Amino acid sequence: MAEKRLSHAYMLVGPDDPERERTAAHMAAGLLCQADNAPCGVCRDCRKVLAGTHPDVITVERLPDAKGQLHRDILVDQIRAVAADAFVAPNEAARKVYVIREADRLGTAAQNALLKALEDPPGHACFLLLTTAADALLPTVRSRCVRADGVRRGDLTAASNPAAEEYLRLAARGSVPDITRFCMLRAKLGREEADGLLTELLDALCDVLCGRRSNPGLRPEELFRLTALLERGRTYLRHNVSPKQVFGVLAAETLKEQE
Predict the structure, then answer these.
(1) How far apart are CA 98 and CA 110, in angstroms?
(2) Angle at Cα 166 formed by Cα 161 and Cα 169, nearest 5°?
(3) pLDDT at residue 154 in the model
């Protein structure tokens, strides 16, 4: 099933402000939404997520101490409770989403407790780590998350990279020859140009997931799978894999679930 191809952890990097909260809410809605074009914003799951009342979206944040002051860090016992709860079946939706605010406030012990959940999570659990400082997280935690950078303000239906728009359109269309042609035309890009394009493609997918860009017709499973695929391609580039090989992988796997 395509559902098993979803990443179980996403790291949302950006300023700690209402825009990031809205982005996280739209991503959670996209994970729980059952519509073809997720997040649809109108189904029961979407409405509850966006209203902050969905029982399968669990927020983890710093707790107050006995004096009413917030603890400096998220406590390790909170993360242990999350790891245990992740194995409990969802209440209403097909998945459970854990939104960890200020993930950079996780101490080493808490991160190690979270790592156990990230290494072998149940299929229905997904984690959204919100942070202003990704480097504060252990490399082992970061490596198990698909990273989404550049939380941006405003509606992004205006000017954008035409190549990103084309990739989304072709992925939704499901034509293997067309997506292969798209990738092969870009196989001769330089490393920096290829990295820039993959970043644009990731931004476009993130915008769809967050409701800032219209969905061309990709199912939720496809959106999250493509996000993980492009992130993998960018990692390959940064480990000296050639752009030709990277775009070959994209050509082979962009439509893999539709074959």
Answers:
(1) 15
(2) 130
(3) 41
Whether residue 244 is predicted with pLDDT greater than 80 in this model: the reply is yes
> In whole angstroms, how far apart are CA 250 and each of 180, 196, 232?
8, 15, 10
Other CB atoms within a 10 A radius of the CB of residue 81 amount to 14
Asked if 161 and 167 touch (Cβ cutoff 8 Å), the reply is no
Task: Indicate if the pLDDT at residue 202 is higher than 90.
Answer: no
Tokens for 187, please give them. 């196989």
Is 128:118 a contact under the CB 8 Å cutoff? no
> For the whole model, what pTM was predicted?
0.66
> What's the mean per-residue pLDDT of the chain?
85
pLDDT at 209 over 80: no
Record the tokens describing residue 42, joined without a space. Answer: 């109108």
CA 72 to each of CA 62, 106, 145, 167: distance values in angstroms, whole numbers, following the listed order: 7, 9, 24, 43
**Chain position carrying tokens 């035409």:** 162
Residues with Cβ within 8 Å of residue 172, at least 6 apart in sequence: 216, 217, 218
Residues 6+ apart with CB under 8 A from 7: 126, 145, 146, 224, 227, 228
- Closest-CA residue to 207 (of 162, 149, 251): 149
